Amino acid sequence: MTVVTTLTDRRLLLVHAHPDDESIGTGSTMAHYAATGAHVTLVTCTLGEEGEIHVPELAGLAAAEADQLGGYRIAELATACAELGVTDHRFLGGAGRYRDSGMMGLSTNEHPRAFWGADLDEAAGYLLEIIREVRPQVVITYDDNGFYGHPDHIQAHRVTMRAVELAAAEGLAPAKVYWTAMPQSVLEAGLTHFAEASDNPFAGIADATELPFCTPDEEIAARIDATEQHAAKEAAMRAHATQIPATSWLYSIAGNFGAEFMGVEYFTLALGEKGPGSGPYGWESDLFAGVAAAASDAAGGPDVVGASGSRPVTPAGHR
Predict the structure, then answer these.
(1) Which of 50, 57, 162, 240 could form a disulfide with 124 if both were Cys (CB 3.0 to 4.6 A apart)?
(2) 153: annotated binding-site residue?
């Protein structure tokens, strides 16, 4: 079935490495923009085949067993997208083109289909096809360390930035590229909160700057307050049940801080001009700040069929 996508004046493209990354890192932002009428496109680079399974009865799906976890996670991701209100989801190059590489230094990095070993220009070419179709003004991915050093996150960064470079050569560059980030002040508050907790995710860390994803507050460009969507983010995370156990510290902190924790997400600006902001560091409150709205027909008309053969996922009949 070919899905027809209606493009709007504001178009946001996110590139994530595995199913569940989108919900944990940018779920509220995605839900916020989807709810306010922006076209949100999610590109996931792998099926997450090497993930740790937290549902005992599904342990046989693991890579070392039946190796069926990736297929199961397709359904989890479809449910998460539905919770976030995102109807345009693609797997880079098609589902199963690239495999989860596992953590850095493991033998799984050497798998023939491991995303970590993907040809950069080939993978970027698949993403470029989507950029040509959707013409996003704003793109989100990870920084050059993949936020915390996972090889697939690093590769997602490289592929995204190369695709943006190729798009620029065709006059199709997005106005802005953001990288996910966590302000130092927020991490310091987390360290304080969890100091005496039994499920302390920061155990052994005394200084927030020791964390690979700690970003000085002055380097943050945008703070997206999507607290109205915190419940959607939590529901999307719960859809990834194989990866995020019900006892996860993520839900623990959500129970203590609620909407503030689930609903606020931060970004640095990698490319483009920063728009108007507020506060001591001029943080933007809108990723489209300073971006002139472009008519949807600039992307080839209001109704665009996926030229690359990609099939956006819709909540009512995923695939």
Answers:
(1) 162
(2) yes
What value, to the nearest 5°, has the Cα angle with vertex 16 and ends 15 and 17? 130
Let me know if residue 145 belongs to a domain: yes
Query: Which residues have a Cβ under 8 Å from the Cβ of 94 and sit 6 or more positions away?
Result: 309, 310
Distances (CA, A) of 48 to 19, 77, 175, 205: 6, 10, 30, 28
Tokens linked to 240: 């990834």
Q: What is the pTM of this model?
A: 0.88
Is residue 230 part of an annotated ligand binding site?
A: no
Q: Which 8-state DSSP code applies to residue 217?
A: G
CB 250 within 8 A of CB 242: no
Angle among Cα 272, 273, 279 to the nearest 5 degrees reads 130
Tokens (6 digits) for 250: 């993520």
Q: What are phi and psi of 254, to 5 degrees?
A: -65, -40
Provide the domain count of the chain.
Answer: 1
pLDDT by residue (tens digit) across 89-125? 999 999 999 999 999 999 999 999 999 999 999 999 9
Residue range 223-242, pLDDT digits in tens: 999 999 999 999 999 999 99
Kindly report the CATH number assigned to the domain that includes residue 268.
3.40.50.10320
CA–CA dist 161, 141 (Å, integer)? 9
Q: Is 240 annotated as a binding residue?
A: no
**Which domain range does residue 186 map to?**
9-301
> Length of the chain, please?
319
Q: Are 306 and 5 in contact (CB under 8 A)?
A: yes
> Quick one: tokens of 241?
């049940």
